[in-house]
Each structure stands twice: as structure tokens, then as C-alpha cells.
């Protein structure tokens, strides 16, 4: 079985869980303990400029910025702007060609190498700037989807070329969640079902959703 079909089947398993709709709705509850739509809508988010609001928004996803990284980002403002200019704002991951993915990957690698950043924080920042193109990939997502090493974007994009699967993800969209990309809906569904964070576990308990089976080690 090809890697994209394996990832597609793992997504289907998440979507088939009877508790996933309630968990996604809980995540986007404006009175709940989660980031919800704030990640997308907080402050200013100009498509070609990295702002302090972008850094603040990513902290809502349980990360923190080291002073070294903030200084480097502020000093490289023109470089980041040029890199963002090469990445379309209106293109979905499953429709992106190799040139677009290469441009996004190059910026991700540059961010990844900043002191105190790494691949997870880099993906969260890029998901804020290009939510339709760049998926968040943390240890929970990697453990659930188990994509081939260094081929997450390509494999997920190939998996999502199936329109029926995209519609099933779209069906998770809660009221008031119009600003949220399909990639973000999928990320939230996976994270709320499988995260071991206190808030995710409390949400599952409140909705009487059984705890998931232990996951294998992530291959970030």
C-alpha cells in the first residue's frame, strides 16, 4: 500500500470516531480553554510580513519563543518577507506543485534552524501565515498519521486529493469556524482525540469519549 493511502486510512480512522465532532466543537468553543479561532484571527496577519501578532498567536498552541529566535526573526524581516512572497496565499496543499512546496520547505528549514525553534514551532508559524498550504506537525499528528520521514507535506497532500475525504473533514467545521482551514480542522481532530494534555483529556471526559490507545513513538 502506498504511503498516501496509509495516511488516508489513518485519517479515516480519526474521522470515524463517534466522539470527534464533539471534540472539534469543544476546541472551537469561544469560552473554552483552547486557542480556537484566535490562532487565525488574532491581531494583524499580513500575508507577506511576519508580525509580533504572529508570534503571539503561535504561543496559543503551547509553544514559547526563545530570545535568540525572536532577535533572529526581527533582524531577518526582509528575508522572511521575500520568502513569503514566493509562497501563494490561496493554494491548498493537495493542489500545490513542487515549486510551491519547495519554496515553503525552504522557509520551514530556515525557521527550523533558528536557535530554540525546531520543526514543530516552524510549522506552527507557517500554518499561521499559509493555513491552506502548511499543516501543523507535532508529535501527536506524526504518531497518528505515521508519514514517511521527511515526506509529511507531500504524503498528506497526496492523501487529501480525494475529494470525499476532504468533505468528511469539512463536515467537522463547527458554527463560527469559517476562518479555519481544512488542514487546521484535521489537525484539531487528531490532537483533540489523541493528545495527552490535561485540557484535551478533560474535554474527552466531559463528552464521555473513551481514552485512545497508546500511540507509537513519533518520527518527526
Spatial shape? globular
Helix proportion:
55-70%
Residues in β-strands, percent: under 5%
What is the averaged pLDDT score? 95
> What distance separates the N and C termini?
22 Å
Individual helix count: 13
What is the radius of gyration?
17 Å
Parts with pLDDT < 50 across at least 5 consecutive residues = none
Question: What order do the helices and strands follow?
Answer: HHHHHHHHHHHHH
Give me the secondary-structure category.
mainly alpha
Largest sheet: none
Strand segment tally? 0
List keywords for this structure.
mainly alpha, 13 helices, globular, 0% strand, 220 residues
Question: Would you write up a description of this structure?
Answer:
By secondary structure, the chain is mainly α. The protein contains 13 helices and no strands. Helix 2 (20-27) crosses helix 12.
Task: Compose a concise summary of this entry.
The chain is mainly α.
Secondary structure layout:
Layout: H1 3-16, H2 20-27, H3 38-41, H4 52-59, H5 67-75, H6 77-85, H7 98-112, H8 118-129, H9 139-145, H10 152-159, H11 163-170, H12 182-194, H13 198-206
Amino acid at each position: 500500500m502506498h504511503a498516501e493511502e496509509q495516511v488516508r486510512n489513518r485519517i479515516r480512522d480519526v474521522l470515524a470516531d463517534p466522539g470527534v465532532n464533539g471534540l472539534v466543537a469543544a476546541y472551537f468553543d469561544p469560552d473554552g480553554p483552547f486557542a480556537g479561532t484566535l490562532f487565525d484571527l488574532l491581531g494583524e496577519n499580513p500575508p507577506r510580513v511576519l508580525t509580533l501578532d504572529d508570534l503571539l498567536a503561535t504561543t496559543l498552541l503551547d509553544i514559547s519563543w526563545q530570545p535568540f529566535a525572536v532577535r533572529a526573526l526581527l533582524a531577518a524581516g526582509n528575508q522572511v518577507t521575500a520568502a513569503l512572497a514566493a509562497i501563494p496565499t490561496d493554494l491548498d496543499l493537495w493542489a500545490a506543485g513542487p515549486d510551491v512546496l519547495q519554496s515553503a520547505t525552504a522557509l520551514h528549514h530556515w525557521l527550523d534552524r533558528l536557535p530554540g525553534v525546531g520543526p514543530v514551532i516552524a510549522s506552527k508559524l507557517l500554518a499561521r501565515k499559509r493555513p491552506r498550504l502548511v499543516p501543523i506537525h507535532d508529535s501527536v499528528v506524526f504518531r497518528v498519521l505515521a508519514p514517511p520521514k521527511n515526506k509529511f507535506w507531500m504524503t498528506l497532500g497526496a492523501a487529501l486529493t480525494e475529494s470525499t475525504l476532504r468533505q468528511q473533514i469539512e463536515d467537522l467545521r463547527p458554527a463560527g469556524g469559517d476562518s479555519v482551514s481544512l488542514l487546521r480542522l484535521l489537525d484539531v481532530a487528531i490532537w483533540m482525540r489523541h493528545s495527552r494534555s490535561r485540557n484535551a483529556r478533560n474535554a474527552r471526559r466531559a463528552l464521555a469519549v473513551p481514552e485512545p490507545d497508546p500511540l507509537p513513538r513519533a518520527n518527526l
